[in-house]
Backbone:
């Protein structure tokens, strides 16, 4: 039973020095996830005297505590896999040992971390669209307060009264209407965040006063300076309760309390439960926990050379769902937390088996070999039954893998997971994998069992014909599967280095005047617009090829190829052969676009013939 929580209130200046000294984060907590805007709003609320909610701190009933503890993040980056600065982290670091005496935060981690980052740390983001591996793609910023903000009126229902902003530098802006002060100026220059690090009011105000330019209202600016100091040092804004309880009750409190804030996901709840069912002490006597180990597992998989080259990245959701599948639990995330404890314990045995990680690697390598790189999968869950099959059987993946190919192609192209539901598909697959003799993946048996639910669960010539009319430029993974198989895997749709291009320019096919000027009859103009995204008008080009083609008319681009002006294209015959394009020059002109796509012996028919060779089509038994 938990002891009755004892309420107390402190200032930010009193609480923050406890972080990473005597107060830590339990392993059952979710990762830090607040945006810069949320941090700014929290600080605005602090200065305005708005309620901030209460915290819940967990003290243990055990004299020698062995609950794994994590540090609060000081320098945060909103990007997985960041490695450019050692002190900047995406995830909290686990302590290597159990502290001698410590408390854990059950509710309020996001708020405390946000105060910590704002006062004593930094927040790094990646420039939109910039390459992850370049250090220059990231902006590391610190929290600043505009000293010319803070006007107290009623017109602030949604905006900030005190304008906080994450910035690279401070001072007077170019327009002269904002003066930015770093929130960290509240502290002495020392690196340790202790009670002594906070400047006195007089010293802080005087240090700011001496730097203010004569062009601004010093009285207004200093009013805001004092508001900032009082908000951190005088306002007892941090209301917290301390509960003394056992770990099982603490997990229940964590789930219940956090449902009132940012709603816990099913993944968060399952991770919290696993921390109780999995071992928390290593053989060497140090801490270990499910959260940390699963994060390390996903980082290893995401960093795997072959898998990362194929675009795969792995998170906790896929890993946990696959463990549930293999442990005979329902492979879905329950917000009520009602799982079978014994099965959760079984999942630890599976996870610690080296064969599990090997099965995941092998399954995704096989998928990639068969043309199902990351962009060609509607979901990584499609591969989960293959993981189970490889984990539970001694199967040689170096051979044909025809049944696995048929499973992947049928599941993705027919949207089986989306139409039937992941849980139903995975449970059905699990049953047939267990019943199989292990010699071949039981694709046909799984798909036959899933039939009769209003979804196509086979792949033959008729299904392919329907797909070629349905799948177009907007079709995501299904288009990527078809185009990748069209090029026999030599070019991969959705894969780094290749881009989907419209043979006849998409924009021009929607311009009636442009088309009619080039001899297209008015009655065909609407058909051209409606069918411009048809797979018969799509090709895969390398970056240099696509740059050369740009928005050029097809006839103009053909001429560039013939004149040797397109990098990487050997000659025009090589182009026609690679892309399954008719060499008939009359068909390359706008008036013949419909014939080019749909005519006898032309692009759609060529695509059909190629895909009948490369896709694992099967005729249903009579």
Residues:
């Amino acid at each position: 039973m938990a002891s009755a929580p004892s309420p107390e209130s402190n200032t930010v200046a009193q609480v923050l020095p406890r972080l990473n000294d005597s107060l830590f984060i339990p392993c059952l907590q979710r990762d830090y996830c607040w945006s810069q805007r949320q941090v700014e709003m929290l600080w605005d609320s602090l200065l305005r005297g708005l309620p901030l909610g209460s915290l819940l701190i967990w003290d243990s009933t055990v004299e020698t505590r062995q609950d794994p503890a994590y540090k609060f993040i000081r320098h945060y980056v909103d990007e997985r896999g960041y490695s450019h600065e050692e002190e900047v982290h995406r995830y909290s670091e686990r302590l290597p040992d159990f502290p001698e005496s410590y408390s854990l935060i059950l509710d309020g981690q996001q708020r405390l971390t946000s105060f910590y980052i704002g006062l004593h740390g930094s927040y790094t983001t990646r420039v939109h669209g910039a390459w992850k591996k370049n250090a220059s793609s990231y902006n590391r910023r610190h929290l600043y307060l505009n000293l010319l903000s803070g006007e107290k009126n009623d017109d602030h229902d949604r905006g900030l009264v005190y304008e906080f902003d994450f910035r690279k530098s401070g001072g007077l802006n170019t327009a002269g209407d904002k003066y930015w002060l770093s929130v960290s100026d509240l502290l002495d220059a020392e690196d340790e965040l202790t009670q002594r690090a906070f400047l006195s009011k007089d010293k802080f105000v005087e240090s700011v006063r001496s730097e203010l330019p004569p062009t601004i209202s010093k009285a207004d600016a200093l009013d805001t300076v004092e508001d900032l100091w009082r908000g951190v040092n005088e306002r007892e804004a941090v209301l917290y309760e301390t509960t003394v309880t056992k770990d099982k009750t603490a997990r229940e409190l964590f789930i219940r309390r956090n449902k009132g804030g940012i709603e816990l996901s099913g993944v968060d709840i399952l991770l919290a439960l696993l921390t109780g069912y999995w071992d928390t002490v290593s053989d060497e006597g140090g801490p270990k926990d499910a959260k940390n180990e699963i994060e390390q597992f996903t980082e290893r998989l995401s960093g795997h050379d072959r898998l990362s080259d194929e675009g795969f990245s792995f998170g906790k959701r896929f890993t946990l769902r696959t463990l549930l599948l293999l442990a005979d639990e329902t492979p879905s995330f329950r917000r009520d937390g009602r799982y079978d404890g014994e099965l959760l314990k079984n999942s630890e045995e599976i996870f610690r088996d080296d064969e599990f990680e090997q099965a995941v690697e092998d399954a995704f390598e096989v998928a990639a070999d068969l043309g199902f790189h990351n962009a060609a999968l509607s979901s990584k869950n499609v591969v989960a039954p293959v993981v189970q099959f490889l984990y539970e059987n001694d199967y040689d993946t170096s051979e044909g893998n025809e049944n696995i190919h048929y499973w992947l192609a049928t599941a993705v192209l027919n949207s089986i997971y989306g139409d039937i539901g992941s849980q139903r598909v995975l449970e059905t697959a699990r049953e047939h994998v267990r019943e199989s003799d292990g010699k071949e993946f039981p694709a046909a048996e799984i798909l036959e069992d899933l039939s009769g639910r209003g979804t196509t669960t086979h792949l033959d010539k008729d299904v392919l014909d329907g797909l070629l009319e349905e799948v177009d430029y907007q079709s995501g993974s299904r288009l990527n599967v078809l185009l990748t198989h069209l090029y026999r895997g030599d070019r991969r749709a959705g894969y780094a280095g290749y881009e989907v291009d419209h043979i006849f320019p998409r924009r021009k096919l929607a311009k009636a005047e442009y088309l009619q000027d080039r001899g297209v009859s008015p009655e065909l103009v609407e058909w051209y617009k409606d069918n411009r995204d048809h797979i018969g008008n799509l090709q895969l080009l390398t970056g240099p090829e696509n740059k050369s083609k740009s928005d050029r008319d097809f006839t103009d681009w053909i001429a560039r190829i013939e004149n040797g002006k397109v990098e990487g294209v050997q000659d025009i015959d090589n182009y026609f052969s690679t892309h399954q394009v008719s060499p008939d020059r009359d068909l390359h002109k706008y008036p013949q676009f419909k014939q080019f796509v749909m005519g006898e012996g032309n692009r759609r028919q060529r695509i059909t013939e190629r895909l009948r060779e490369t896709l694992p089509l099967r005729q249903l038994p009579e």
